[in-house]
Amino acid sequence: MAALRRIHSWVPLLQRPCTRSCQRAAPVTRRLLHTPPRVAAANQHWPRSTSVLQLRCFAPSACTLKSKGNFTNGQQTGLTEEEEDEDFMEDSEVDELFQQQIPEGIGDGRQRVFIVHPDVKWGRNKQHLTTAELMMAEAVGLVNSLDNWRVVDKIILSTKTPEKKRIFGKGNFESLTEKIRQTAGITAVFVNVEHLSALSEREFEEAWGFKVLDRYSVVLHIFRCNARTKEAKLQISLAEIPLLRSRLRNEMANLDQQGGGSRYIGGSGETLYEVQQRLLKEREMKIRSALDKLKKKRHLLRSQRKHKEFPIVSVLGYTNCGKTTLIKALTGDSGLQPRNQLFATLDVTVHAGQLPSRMTVLYVDTIGFLSQLPHQLIDSFSSTLEDIKHSDLLVHVRDISHPETVNQKANVMNVLKNLQIPDGLMNSMIEVHNKIDLLDNYESTEHNALPISALEERGLDELRRVVEEKILTSTEKHILDLKVNLSTPQLSWLYKEATVQDVQVNADEGSAVVKVTISTAAYGRYRKQFMGR
Ligand SMILES: Nc1nc2c(ncn2[C@@H]2O[C@H](COP(=O)(O)OP(=O)(O)OP(=O)(O)O)[C@@H](O)[C@H]2O)c(=O)[nH]1
Ligand SMILES: [Mg+2]
User: Could you tell me if the ipTM is greater than 0.95?
Assistant: First the structure.
């Protein structure tokens, strides 16, 4: 009983009563996954006021999902009112959920980060495509992309035992701990591995007395800071669930040591741990269901786009390679904001641009890729990336000035492989070598790659030309100049069945030369109807 009282002293009651499925949990919990008391005592920098996870129930009636479903560049997708009414979670509800889940110890505040990169010498965890120095440079880039975060010191330490709880051997671990203790002003330690186990995290926090981060938590925080739309926020909330789960395990292990975590709560027949796990599961299902609804909506948007016959060109590539800058240059869309920051773009946005024949295409700006991006994140963002599969053409942008450009390409190709992009789409992909302005007299050694500078708008005409050529092939369309007799319905037929780009009228002859983009099938019908063949 004493242990339970202790829990209650730092577990404030639910602020408002739960409804429906969560009612059983009502007497127990509001404050969950609080900083374990022992670690908290060692770490004075952690904010105390925010809870890691304040699980609350979602009244089903309030769970409506509203998606604006509009394109940028002023193009509405035209969802009907009934479709809007099918919405599932209110914006405010998503925002609230998003805010509740801000991980403790990361928050909005300043962070002065010590980075340690474990350099695996051999075995299956060894990185073959890169070097420890470049991996460290990427870790520094991740930290620096966050406002108010800076790197105070960094170290590359070799290890033969990356799978062990402490990752490093005894000697290296002790010297690392010594170095961290001697470095002034640290608020967090970033261990540059994909994902630390809950046990390792706890072990490190106890040894060093600081918040410990891994690649997953840092990338997630960057995503969090850059999330603007409901879908991005929901995806991040979902990606945070494994973190919350592992913290819950840590916390309960801590409580168990004090004899409290596995006790039954009131007459519910559930232990505190079980209740919290269940609430977490319910939250996860709620988010997944909301995301599913958004996905369905996305399908609708996709079919509407198809219906409008605007070909779709997805622009993809490693983070910070210049995707947004390129789309801005191709479309003149001043609303786009390229930033020298990793994961500046988190939401798929669509921007209309014109090709040389004046055909309109929609460029899709996508989320950037990153090496060793934790799989859970990929899962959470897979629906965003799924759009890529339904494009008519892919443009792979590479930052050719980057020292890791070859590895970045390998990484992107790997992610695309996992996304199971159709062969035809993969084979027609255009590779663009961007940022050539940063290199002297750049000449590509790779066949078919197009050198450009999105920033200086160099090489864009050739790119547009190649995009048009490939789009015409992939959509089985042709650009034709057709002579029409203005006294027949030919012109109105073309307006209906094809995309008319230009009409040159010859009033004396009562005819016109019409430039159209027309599908093979439509041209067959046209010939049959008006040319008798
Ligand atoms: N010198 C140079 N810089 C460029 C070029 N293209 C983009 N940049 C810069 O590269 C940085 C990243 O550009 P973005 O367009 O935001 O890159 P992104 O690929 O959209 O990045 P994420 O959305 O974060 O994945 C910005 O500082 C751009 O100004 C280029 O051709 N030359
Ligand atoms: Mg971008």
Answer: yes
